[in-house]
Give the backbone structure.
Amino acid sequence: MAFTPRYTQPTASGYYGSWNTYNRFGWLFADNDYGGNCTGYAYGRTSEIAGRNIHDDFYITQSPGNGKDWIYNSWPEYTHTSGAIDIHLGDILVWGGGTYGHVEVVEAINGNKLTVSYSVYGETYGSSREFGIRTVDYPSWGSYMGVWTDNDGNDHNYTNTFIGYIHNKYLDEPGPGPEPEEPTIYISPASYTKTMGAEEDYVDFPFTITIEGIPVGESASGGNTYPGLERVANTGWSYSSYVVDGVIYQRATKSQTLRYRRESDGEYSVTKHMYFNMTFSNGSISSDTRMVINVEKKKPKGVLFLEWDGATVMIL
């Protein structure tokens, strides 16, 4: 069976509808006190992967439990709580700790990173039901669940620990996720040609620098050199997130202005470079941006002599 990842909130029907064992009171993400949560979502998502309602097949439906209970109540032959960890697409991660624990579904595998889909209650516990995706480190026994970001952009740090995972038996050949996207740098403009006027002592070169493919948890810092130039403006990095094949990456953007100062009064042409390089866990980036400056001969100040009432006045 082919695996199709889910990165968006499902519609209010089908596997996430009123027949869902964990959602017996209506739409899974309804704003009422009877909507779903992580178990309702994971149950619906597993049914969606299977292409049918798994009610008669999923053991835990005989005794609905909290998220952490799934590791003890679901398919025994597909449940893992010790030994080597070998997580596949569509598997259910189970986190213990607290009263309820948590479950979420693996949508993509990218080296030592997993992209998972999930649902949780809103922080008010009884208002909004959250849906989201996040990228987590490949877990080890007892590792922490970490941070999820709610739909309002707030981060929540959970101390639930990894207690096991459940292979999705409906996938015949679960394979690895996509190859990681490599970091890419875009500098706009990529090159400059400017003429410094005869009356000018310097010329400025404003840039916009954008880096894509930054893994979650890493940052863009430093990275560029500009011999023979001075930096006169530099904004901080601003970050945004985007998804490629189910993997969350960061995009970083900043603006800089570099300045070249006149070196002599004669006419000449000079080429300067800005070198940019940076290394992330998924690869390296580099850029050589060229600035060609044509400098006009500097004009001397004019001298004007005037006679005024017999006196000679020199004006520079």
